[in-house]
Design goal:
Chain A is α/β, with parallel strands linked by helices. Chain A has helices at 2-15, 53-73, 90-102, 114-127, 139-142, 155-168, 184-200, 219-227, 239-252, 294-307, 313-335, 346-357, and strands at residues 36-46, 77-85, 107-109, 130-133, 148-150, 174-180, 203-210, 232-235, 257-260, 282-285, 339-340, 364-366, 369-374, 380-381, 385-390, 393-396. The radius of gyration of chain A is 22 Å and the shape is globular. Chain D has helices at residues 2-29, 36-52, 58-81, 89-111, 137-159, 161-171, 173-178, 183-208, 218-231, 236-256, 262-276; strands at 128-130, 133-135. Bound molecules: adenosine-5'-triphosphate (2 copies) and magnesium ion (2 copies).
């Protein structure tokens, strides 16, 4: 009884140790023993309403689960989460960012989508707020901004990795691409895919586009690909339009290999989706809800309990982000004899986190990748996993 | 103007007040129209004649006062119900349905009645206004001013009302037609229709009216039989052009 | 008479707005949120008064005003990039004069290009009326947005290049299709925005109170009578439309140069609608109303952040409620309460 | 080319069916009901829920969805539009936009942002093959529905008493009252019918493009609005023709100029058509009598 | 009205032409205008609406300072004639000469600038503008400054605005409306609105003023006032006036020449007394039971 009580007491005191002197419990001392203590105000920015709400809410739910878990680990260190909606609009995203600053947020996970992230990252860079985006994958997000880091693959990374993968595995000789040319993410991957493909001698026989406003009928694009004799269809797009493409291709009787990127993840979990349509789809994704490791299984279960859905890659990214920050702070605390984050300025935290994230010996094991490390650019280095959908589940390749 | 003696009150308006925003247009007027009568309201421009008719007809809302039609209060009743009870208004400015044809306009007038009855009445209206029959397929908005006036009146007749309120029915009509219009009014009245008439042509209005009220800036300032007002000096000076 | 008094009210509102917020800003009393919103608010105010010139004064419904803002915004960005490419970037740091000069040039050219766009679309379109005009302006806005999706602009040592091919990018990218403009140097300032707003108000209000403005309003009230009075309808409709487009362009340039990145998608139908909401809510034809509505409605969704997921729902309800209230006769009478009596006494 | 034509007609028939409802409400109530697209979305969700959660057969689900939307249309009209009868049309337009935001956000809270994949309720209808192209079951049903609705609406507004009342109300509400027409009831009925049609459109839209999210109705709503104007707003056959043409232009433009967003051509053609025919393809130009 | 002398002036038609078409008579002008050129002439003017011939062979010549009445049954085509003269409708056939210049190819605005001003049967004011502003629209083309001057309020702006303010008040004063200069047009009583329309038309400095039923909706005393004012306008400005009216007191009272239209054609032309006793006119228009 005594010990348990004592521990609890210590935690509480540890939390408030500015006010009261510690009552003899060494574990509560902030410095010297490498402990991470205090409360971190962590902000999240993403689209919670509007047409892209899907992605923002996935990240939010993922992050909330992570924060609950982290808060349960050690009462001495707590994260308080502050989620702000940006409706996938750069202007509102900057507003959300300013709100977080007003709310005394110290570190930001965000933003979820690319265009807003470009706007916010520029602000965060000049303000010196550390930002880790779960899913904004354009290289411009991190380029020239030392305090902006990505947890997801960057577009070039995905684009060229996809080309590389297709070429290495001789998946196809003639490739068709359908991408969203009203969308930064999709266009970004397309551009690097295209240049890598020509470098590798992959023949791109058809390139067709759509925009969010015309994302209903893809028959023309599919027909073009079919007429060009494509044996692989590369889809650097999100899963929602992808599901329509799969259906319409199947209706047309056009069945090339389908190759997606991380935005494709989530397709199997769409309510009412006929997973047979996705049979044989290959995608490069860092996350697979069917993975059998314990961490993933735990997350998938919690997510399901919380939201009633199977988590997508966005949710997984959202889950990994708070952990990455938590691990980084721990890492720093351990090296520097402890760290109390309560009321630390965001600028100080920013320098700490930059130093950790760019430290080659710092790596994070998350559900979207083992041993993730970051380069000085802020881009993550993790192995893309290629999976193929078989019988409605991902199978590693 | 024969059957006014034994007529019971058909329309009774008491202490009516109407505002346009902050403009007090009708200031507590009271009047009544008996069954079978022709009653006319005369007054200068802006006196409030049209406002009165529009309020009784339900196009405008009174801020206070009572309006009774055949003994029943109609102040709160929606206008369209009052129409089916037998009241019709031929409003100022004609308000015909511009994009419908002449015939469709007339049919609209008989909205509350069944088709057979309407067909019968339409023939009568065509008789009264042969021009309308000639032009029954023309889009009403392209009719000449006077033709539109005929259409508006014809449309009001289509519902075979017990009480018809006419707001300047002779406006814009050729002299020959003005005479006709007044003839039509009189013959309607003979057939038992009660009439509340607003006219700029006070001379003619008074000469066919049983009773008349004189309206001045929203108040009733004079009333009496048509004849007596026709010979009233102040009325002559103000409304009959000397 | 009444109208000219209103004019000064508007200048005063802007000046007070500027002075109060500039003081709060420099004494550090403003939240980051408000600080960050100052320039967009000013830009939306300009958008609102300029759209009001078309909707309220000229009486035409335009659903594509964001298209002109977009033209001004991207022109402004290109102008800035072109100017900066000609100079040493570090020369700009701290050199406020230079910054303001570049901003002014960008705004003027942005406005001019938007005016040209307004002219080109205006000539044919102004022959239509009512909802048909509305739909064509909507179409115009969407066309601009979609064109920008496939426009790629870059600067290399041979100068500025425009292309439709994403793979042609070379040198410094200025516009990258749907990704929009990246790495914009933020040179807009609140003070510059307020000066621009004052200029815009000056132009619009003086225009309205001149013979041209009267002609525009006369055409709105009765086109046939205006023609019969010797007015050339197209000329004056075009005047209103082009002036308004130019100002939207200026607002666009101011807006764009306040962010490090802007995307074509920002200036879509929804933004056009948003500005229309400012105009209608502020009172059609009422410039003061437009200014206030633009400011309040820009801040409102941000103020509702604490309601998190219910935020946009509440915003929608507020919008509907305000529309119902401001158009309710009783409520209006209540608002006019004190004046009401005066008028009555004056009349009788 | 034939393939594109057929695909264009498939897409266009969906626009057309939405445009019919749009034009109906516009023609009578003289308002641009920007919330129409969102009623379509509600129709989609209502039928989806009935089928997926309650296990109702599709036919019943569709009827249910029509019921839900009809009631919704009446309620919206009563609460949001009726108080604005005497206000400017712009005030009503803005309110409609408010209603549109409202419906989208309610849907977001109720059904979340996770897309629902709509079942193919016309699976049993075998597609017809024409040359290389296939006409799917849902397209055939949609075209059929278009024709039936077009004829029914034309007869309804032209021949029935209620239809006549609607035309009178659309011309002049005050004068209509004087004819004994219950204006409020007539407008309610208009919204009821328009919203019922929206439910049908919702079902067909979602079957053809089975991806249901809170913003599903928004873009098709705007496109259908464009289609209605294209055909001459207020004209019932015009809406259908406008819708189908819009779909065909969209698909053909995409086929011919794959690099450029097809909306550019759609809207450009719209502008050109309106310049040549300022009141749309079948719209009547009524010259104002002076 | 006995003092008006009307003389025949050789009309626009040659003898041959007169034989070809059924021209009822030559142009009448008052003695006063005998030696001045005609302000307005029409030749074979006509328009069809679909199958309906609304105006046909409308031939008229109007003296420089004449008050002409255009009367006829409802739907005879009177308003349509005005619409043709002011180019609201493009004539199907025939020509219109204004001061000897063919108005072919002109639009409503340029016809107005060339010297024809009008009022409308259904009042068309600029409702949301004040009375003075309504008049200033009429003065638009006489106010000499451009958009730029207006925006920057250069000295010319002030000078010209002052001038048009003064003219506007002067014109309003004709009808005793100067004290209502700041009232919004749509809040004026009906009669005043009609008068304002006339002032606005007058402000465009026309050579001929077309009035479509100016007395409609006015009571007898107002009509009398209006008659005086129309005469006054003609006298002060020395312009021609052509008016459509169903109020016979007004028409017979001030018109010097009257043309009667029926089914789109002129059936009679002459002095008031001639018209009054013309059996065709009585039959078609005046009615036998007229009370005058
Ligand atoms: N819509 C309105 N808004 C404001 N005031 C109005 C409105 N309609 C009428 N008024 C005012 O109400 C008063 C009465 O007008 P009303 O039209 O009833 O007069 P009237 O006797 O019919 O005149 P007229 O002979 O010109 O038809 C007038 O002072 C008029 O200016
Ligand atoms: N745009 C049009 N389309 C079809 N018919 C028309 C059009 N304009 C006028 N008309 C017809 O032409 C004839 C002449 O009309 P107009 O308005 O000139 O008559 P009016 O002589 O002014 O009659 P009123 O004295 O009644 O005003 C009428 O029969 C009218 O119906
Ligand atoms: Mg009246
Ligand atoms: Mg006429």
């Amino acid at each position: 009884g005594e010990t348990a009580n004592g521990n609890n007491g210590a935690a509480t005191t540890g939390d408030q140790n500015q006010d009261q002197p510690a009552d003899g419990q060494t574990s509560a001392e902030p410095a010297g023993d490498g402990a991470l203590t205090g409360t971190l105000n962590l902000g999240v920015i993403g689209p919670m309403t509007g047409a892209a709400a899907l992605y923002g809410n996935a990240v939010k739910n993922g992050a909330e689960i992570a924060v609950e878990e982290i808060n349960a680990i050690d009462p001495a260190f707590q994260i308080s989460l502050d989620v702000q909606d940006d409706v996938h609009d750069p202007e509102i995203s900057v507003n959300a960012y300013q709100t977080l600053k007003d709310n005394k947020v110290q570190v930001i996970v965000g933003t979820v989508t690319t265009s807003p992230c470009l706007a916010v990252s520029a602000e965060a860079n000049s303000d010196r707020v550390f930002m880790l985006t779960p899913s904004a994958s354009s290289p411009s997000v991190t380029e020239g901004k030392d305090n902006i880091f990505q947890l997801c693959f960057s577009d070039p990374n995905q684009g060229s990795a996809s080309a590389q993968y297709i070429s290495d595995n001789k998946l196809a000789t003639k490739v068709a691409v359908i991408y969203n040319n009203g969308d930064a993410y999709s266009t970004g991957i397309y551009q690097t895919f295209k240049s890598k493909a020509s470098e590798l001698g992959l023949e791109v026989v058809s390139e067709t586009t759509f925009t969010d406003d015309t994302a209903t009928d893809f028959t023309v694009q599919l027909k073009a690909a079919q007429d060009a004799g494509a044996d692989l269809l590369f889809l650097p797009i999100y899963y929602q339009p992808a599901s329509l493409i799969l259906k319409q291709a199947s209706d047309m009787g056009f069945s090339p290999k389908m190759f997606g990127v991380d935005g494709m993840d989530g397709i199997l979990t769409m309510e009412g989706f006929d997973t047979k349509l996705a049979e044989g789809v290959i995608l490069l994704t860092p996350f697979s809800a069917d993975a059998e490791d314990e961490a993933t299984a735990n997350f998938v279960k919690k997510f399901n309990d919380k939201v009633g859905e199977t988590p997508s890659q966005f949710a997984a990214d959202g889950y990994d982000c708070p952990y990455a920050i938590y691990r980084a702070l721990e890492f720093y605390a351990a090296k520097n004899g402890g760290l109390d984050v309560t009321d630390m300025s965001y600028a100080d935290l920013c320098e700490i986190l930059i130093s950790v994230f760019t430290d080659p010996s710092f790596s994070v094991d998350g559900i979207t990748g083992q041993g993730m490390v970051w380069d000085a650019n802020g881009e993550v280095n993790k192995a893309p996993k290629a999976v193929v959908i078989e019988n409605g589940v991902y199978v590693g390749m | 103007m024969a059957n006014s003696e034994n007529g019971k009150t058909m329309l009774k308006v008491e202490d009516l007040n109407v505002y346009y925003g902050s403009i007090h247009a009708i200031k507590g007027i009271s009047f009544e129209v008996n069954q079978g009568e022709i009653v006319t309201l005369i007054g200068a421009n802006g006196a409030g004649k049209s406002t009165t008719l529009n309020t009784v007809g339900g196009l405008l809302k009174a801020s206070s006062g009572t309006i009774e039609f055949e003994g029943k209060s109609i102040a709160g009743t929606p206008a369209h119900k009052v129409v089916s009870e037998g009241m019709a208004l031929c409003p100022e400015g004609r308000r015909i349905f511009q994009r419908l044809t002449v015939k469709e306009n007339l049919e609209m007038g008989a909205y509350t009645r069944n088709k057979a009855e309407a067909d019968e009445t339409i023939e009568k209206v065509y008789e009264q206004f042969p021009r309308l029959k000639e032009r029954f397929r023309q889009i009403a908005g392209t009719l000449s001013g006077g033709e539109q006036q005929m259409l508006a009146m014809g449309r009001a007749l289509m519902s075979k009302p017990k009480l018809i309120m006419l707001d300047e029915p002779s406006m814009g009509l050729a002299p020959i037609l003005v005479q006709q219009i007044f003839d039509i009014i009189e013959s309607l009245n003979k057939d038992g229709t009660t009439i509340l008439l607003v006219e700029q042509n006070a001379q003619m209005a008074l000469s066919i009216a049983d009773r008349a009220y004189v309206l001045e800036t929203g108040r009733i300032v004079n009333s009496g039989t048509g004849d007596s007002l026709l010979h009233d000096d102040s009325v002559r000076r103000a409304y009959l052009g000397g | 008479m009444k109208r000219s008094k209103n004019r000064f009210v508007n200048y005063i509102i802007v000046l007070v707005f500027f002075v109060v917020f500039q003081i709060l800003l420099s004494t550090g009393h403003l939240s980051s949120l408000i600080t960050g919103q100052l320039i967009p608010i000013v830009a939306y105010m300009i958008m609102a008064v300029s759209l009001n010139l078309v909707v309220g004064i000229s009486g035409e419904l335009s659903l594509g005003h964001a298209g002109f803002m977009s033209v001004g915004a991207f022109t402004g960005v290109i102008v800035e990039a072109a100017l900066l490419s000609k100079m040493d970037p570090s020369a700009l740091n701290g050199n406020m004069g230079m910054q303001m000069l570049i901003l002014a040039v960008a705004i003027v050219i942005g406005a001019a290009v938007a005016a040209v766009a307004g002219f080109l679309i205006g000539i044919p379109v102004l022959r239509l009326n009512g909802d048909y005009l509305a739909i064509v302006t909507l179409a115009f806005g969407e066309i601009i947005k979609n064109l920008l999706y496939c426009l790629y602009v870059y600067i290399d040592d041979r100068g500025l290049h425009f292309s439709l091919d994403p793979n042609s990018l070379n040198g410094t990218t200025v516009l990258n299709g749907p990704m929009g403009a990246l790495g914009i140097k933020k040179i807009s300032t609140f003070a510059a925005g307020c000066v621009l707003l004052l200029i815009v108000l000056f132009i619009i209000q003086n225009l309205i109170n001149s013979k041209s403005g009267r002609a525009i309003m006369a055409i709105r009230d009765n086109r046939i009578a205006a023609e019969a009075s010797g007015l050339h309808v197209t000329k004056y409709k075009l005047m209103a439309f082009v002036t308004s487009a130019a100002m939207a362009g200026a607002a666009g340039a101011l807006y764009a140069l306040n962010y490090s990145t802007i995307v074509p998608k920002k200036f879509d139908f929804n933004t056009s609608i948003l500005v229309l909401v400012f105009v209608v809510l502020g009172g059609i034809g009422n410039m003061t109303g437009s200014l206030i509505a633009a400011a309040l409605l820009t801040v409102l969704p941000e103020m509702l952040r604490e309601f998190s997921t219910y935020r946009m729902l509440i915003y929608a309800i507020v919008l509907i409620a305000v529309m119902l209230l401001t158009n309710n006769a009783k409520f209006k009478a209540f608002l006019n309460g004190p004046f009401h009596k005066e008028k009555k006494e004056g009349k009788e | 080319m034939l393939t594109y034509l057929i695909n264009g007609i498939s897409l266009g028939s969906v626009y057309a069916i939405i445009a019919l409802g749009y034009t109906m409400v516009y023609g009578i109530a003289k308002m641009l009901n920007f919330a129409h697209g969102d009623i379509i979305m509600v129709g989609g969700y209502a039928s989806f829920c009935a089928m997926s959660y309650l296990g109702w057969p599709p036919a019943v689900a569709v009827l249910f969805s029509i019921g839900v939307c009809t009631v919704l249309g009446i309620v919206i009209e009563r609460l949001a539009y009726k108080p604005l009868r005497s206000a400017t049309s712009l005030a009503v337009l803005i309110t409609a936009i408010g209603v549109s935001y409202f419906l989208q956000n309610v849907a977001l809270l109720v059904w979340t942002s996770n897309p629902k994949v709509y079942p193919n309720i016309f699976e049993k209808i075998p597609p017809i093959t024409v040359g290389e192209a296939q006409i799917s079951g849902v397209t055939m049903v949609t075209i059929l529905a278009n024709i039936v609705i077009m004829i029914a609406l034309t007869l309804f507004t032209g021949k029935t008493r209620m239809g006549k009342a609607m035309r009178a109300v659309s011309e002049d509400k005050g004068a209509a009252t004087l004819m004994g027409i219950n204006v409020n009831f007539t407008i309610s009925m208009t919204f009821a019918i328009g919203s019922g049609l929206a439910a049908i459109a919702g079902v067909l839209l979602c079957t053809a493009y089975p991806n249901l999210v809170p913003t599903t109705g928004a873009m098709p709503g705007i496109k259908a609005f464009v289609a209605a104007v294209f055909g001459g707003i207020g004209s019932i056959p015009g809406a259908m023709i406008g819708g189908i043409l819009l779909g065909v232009i969209e698909i053909v433009a995409r086929a011919l100029v794959p690099d450029v967003p097809s909306d550019i051509f759609v809207f450009a053609v719209l502008i050109i058509v309106l310049l040549v025919k300022p009141s749309g393809l079948l719209g009547k130009t009524v010259r104002e009598k002076v | 009205m006995s003092d008006i002398k009307v003389v025949e002036k050789p009309g626009p038609f040659t003898e041959e032409e007169k034989k070809l078409v059924n021209v009822p008579s030559d142009t009448f002008v008052t003695e006063r205008d005998k030696d001045k050129p005609l302000v307005l002439e029409t030749r074979h003017l006509g328009i069809d609406f679909g199958g309906l011939t609304a105006v046909d062979e409308f031939n008229i010549g109007i003296g420089a300072t004449e008050i002409t009445g255009l009367i006829g049954p409802n739907g005879a085509g009177k308003t349509t004639v005005f619409n043709l003269l002011t180019k609201v409708y493009e004539p199907t056939r025939g020509s219109i000469l204004l001061n000897g210049v063919d108005t072919h190819g002109m639009n409503p605005a340029s016809v107005n600038q060339a010297g024809i001003a009008r009022t409308f049967q259904n009042i068309r004011l600029f409702d949301k503008l004040t009375v003075e502003e309504n008049v200033k629209i009429g003065l638009h083309n006489r106010t000499d400054y451009g958009m730029f001057t207006g925006i920057f309020r250069l000295p010319k702006y002030w000078k010209e605005e002052k001038k048009s303010h003064e003219i506007a008040l002067e014109l309003l004063d004709i009808f005793g409306m100067a004290d209502q200069a700041d009232v919004r047009a749509d809040s004026l009583p009906y009669g005043a609105q009609r008068r304002l329309e006339i002032v606005r038309a007058l402000a465009t400095d026309p050579k001929i003023l077309l009035l479509d039923e100016p007395a409609a909706g006015m009571n007898p005393s107002e009509t009398e006032e209006l008659m005086k004012n129309i005469a006054k306008i003609r006298d002060t400005f020395g312009i021609a006036v052509m008016l459509i009216e169903h109020d016979m007191k007004l028409v017979m009272g001030i018109c010097e020449v009257i043309a009667v239209l029926n089914f789109g054609k002129i059936i009679a032309k002459g002095t008031p007394s001639e018209i009054r006793s013309n059996p065709q006119v009585i039959e078609a228009y005046l009615g036998s039971k007229k009370d005058e």
